[in-house]
């Protein structure tokens, strides 16, 4: 963790499997774009489908692919196959990799989604930029709270600014750390 007054960052080695969404939507290589769009819109909507050819993941088709490569060209989704518009080769990441590894891979390859593969090469999940941002934001918010708590604990013990005596129960008064005896004197 690095800390300065303007920004709190947490460097962590969270495994990507901890934030992945399991059972990503898949579609056959020969399916139409219309079928893919229906699948993306079905219960638990998602913005993508992993394209499988003979059971092997070979690409990904996204809402953006459909919009830019089919709709914008005034093509009929029922006449275009996902194999014609999918992004391939499929860029994946293993379950043992970290969220940080996933973010670097996304940046390097300019992709917003990474299928997660197990040690047999089978897609078992997917992680998106949104997933990474959500976990990073949550961790940074927690770190902010911990820094506040830590600062409060730092003020509770030390040397009294007025009498110079050590105390485990200092209070901050107008920017000075004051022991209970000096606080009592102030009340008299």
UniProtKB/TrEMBL annotation:
InterPro entries: ACP_MB, CBS_dom, CBS_dom_sf, Diverse_CBS-Domain. Fe cation binds at residues 160, 163, 179, 182. GO terms for molecular function: metal ion binding. Residues 155-188 form the ACP-type MB domain. It comes from the Archaea. One of its GO terms (biological process) is methionine biosynthetic process. Zn(2+) binds at residues 160, 163, 179, 182. Residues 20-78, 86-142 form the CBS domain. Keywords: Amino-acid biosynthesis, CBS domain, Iron, Metal-binding, Methionine biosynthesis, Zinc. It holds the Pfam family CBS. This is CBS domain-containing protein. It comes from Methanospirillum stamsii.
